[in-house]
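Table S5 (text form). Sequence records supplied for joint modeling of the two-component complex.
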Amino acid sequence: MNNETLIENEARAEALEQAIADQDLVATADLLTGMGTTEIIEVLERLNTRERAVVYRLLAKDRAIEVFERLDSTLQSEILSGLQDEDVAAVFAELNPDDRVALLDELPASVARRLMLGLSPTQRILTATVLGYPQGSIGRSMSPEFVTAHPAGTVAETLVKVREQLDDAETIYTLPVTDAGRLVGVISLRDLLRAEPDERIGELMSVPESMGAEVDAEAAARHCADLKILALPIVDREDRLVGILTVDDALRILESAESEDAARTGGSEPLRRPYLATPVASIVRSRVVWLLVLALGATLTVQVLDLFEATLEQQVVLTLFIPLLIGTGGNTGNQAATTITRALALGDVRPRDVLQVLAREVRVGVTLGLLLGSLGFVIASAVYAVPIGAVVGLTLLGVCTMAATVGGVMPMLGKAIKADPAVFSNPFITTFVDAAGLILYFLIAKLVLGI
Amino acid sequence: MNNETLIENEARAEALEQAIADQDLVATADLLTGMGTTEIIEVLERLNTRERAVVYRLLAKDRAIEVFERLDSTLQSEILSGLQDEDVAAVFAELNPDDRVALLDELPASVARRLMLGLSPTQRILTATVLGYPQGSIGRSMSPEFVTAHPAGTVAETLVKVREQLDDAETIYTLPVTDAGRLVGVISLRDLLRAEPDERIGELMSVPESMGAEVDAEAAARHCADLKILALPIVDREDRLVGILTVDDALRILESAESEDAARTGGSEPLRRPYLATPVASIVRSRVVWLLVLALGATLTVQVLDLFEATLEQQVVLTLFIPLLIGTGGNTGNQAATTITRALALGDVRPRDVLQVLAREVRVGVTLGLLLGSLGFVIASAVYAVPIGAVVGLTLLGVCTMAATVGGVMPMLGKAIKADPAVFSNPFITTFVDAAGLILYFLIAKLVLGI
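The corresponding structure-token record, covering 902 residues in total, follows.
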């Protein structure tokens, strides 16, 4: 798709949205037939619940299923609630076990049970295996449908087996090699095609990378990404193969993990659906709790200032620098926190590195502090008075050092106590640094100005 | 890999790092032989330049190349600078054209030129095609090595062709179908295996999704991810096939894009290498410019306060709420900015949606403002005085509304003027909201308290 084509699609999407807004069903249906699945999905993700239900019902049957399979489970469940029972059952049966489980989590228990009963026995068992693993584990997002090879089997035999199971398996490009259920190797279809028909899998297979089904889904997905492989075998505690994680599922897992981190560092809960498809009320809900918590934390600053009110009355000029000082502290803290949160997510830094991180951030903080501090000293001395300049400069040095250190260590503590590091980063740090920075400021002021 | 195994690896990695710290080359070499490529890479990413060079030279030849291929280009260039010319040439020749180009961007022009001349003619041409596209375009990250099918060809013929080119092509699992160089379709290896030997590709192929080589790399990678496909054909303006983007490369592109967004929203430049492998000096560099810019912006708040110094002298109590008020404003702004920045990155929101976003964020802001405002009014009235409570409450209402609106719209403006939306988000908003919030605060105070 060239930039030109991108623009065409844009235009078509706009026309469609217009038709929907005008409730012109004929025009809508016409436009839909001319559009690709991806385009349709992009539009659906921008509509409100009612509009989405209408548009979905206008889709041709197979197209409808294609589209449904690729929607987020939250949107899927909404659409289902608007369909006839028999259509629901049909759509549900079409899904892959892993996607089906994601959807089940969104549905009311009664509906979920009814849908499960509607499945074919095999599909029900497959779905059950996935359902058996705890939320957030990779077992929940893996596909239990895979083709395996046997070490004693020949290339020819294996290729036949692959051909037979072409339609059931999630991927045929990476084959786990199992012996009595245990994962003993892995072989790519590329290697199979390269080899002689009578060669034995056992001689061709390579050492398998794998993950335990109980491992955190994001960690497994990140591992799959780092390995640059198309599929990662998932095993149970006895190293028996229970599923396979395909790279496209890994990608989906990572994307939602990134969204979560982004939201948390911004001090809100992640939206569980595309922004424009989220009701304003849920957006408010995703933010209000955090905002209240942080505001409550900020009352600390009120108390600190209350404490030093006498000092302020003597030197109102000190007030002028309050936002600058705590702002700079907040920025320095956020810089450190964001870097470390990201490094933790990527596995570049581990909780045991806490001392190394501490040492580095102190050095960074001091350097930044000296720079900003001397600058602050010069300017504030010039504009106001040298003592004031000294107070501002020294405070900047102190605040930067403290902020960088706290900002670097907080996320690691979060990780260490198994909380989301992102939660422990930016917003909290700002609140903490604000209060601590103010205390530092007034202590230095009292010292330097002798009040 | 089970959690148990993960812990084992942890232990091994720690032992290795110890051996390296002790400069015990024998122990280091022993430990290395027992480790998987991924483990070794994880360790390398945690060492400093000198240590990394030592460890790399201890690796067996093939292992060394395996490892090298999967390192970031920044680390690759460092390692190269420590190797003999002939080794450099050998390693360089082993790389895929796209990885090679990424590395060339890191190397001094003279070295780059020499290395290019060392390549085989074919490899040199392939590398040149990739080099021909602008930085940041998908053309730069695509692979120019692909197997194509012809619509008139039979399944049997195509499978033979695939077998012949097994080793050169980046992927054989998705085959672009071209006619006279033009992309006319795409067929998966799965479909080929499913079909009868004498069927024609033209009847089996499906409509191709593709991207123009000039398209932004992140957009293309995101598209590849949304489609849940293994490879996306890349075409030139005349729709001629010029390369292919594989999902694992798409993943790599997305990861670095995420890191960049994370850093920018945190108010710093992205580190171009793993945190522990980054010298403190470069970390400082990645933060200092932003910090200075923001501090400069914050001097606005000093001027605002200077403006209202008289008011402050009359009512020192107003000072107490300054950090709380601007803090809350900053948080509300960041929440909105982070949500919208993310939505833009995911393509959930487009610049043309600016009015819709504006409308939504105003509503969100007012709702949050009413909540926090009334709360602030009650508390401040109880602790201090009703007029003070009124000032605080009204300011909170105003600040939240303004912050959410600004926070929501700023990233979209950023995107519209083709800048990185993340840059225009959190740090800038905080600075802006701080100053604007203070003005609002004092105007309301003057009005309510009649000073």
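Note: Chain B has a mean pLDDT of 88.
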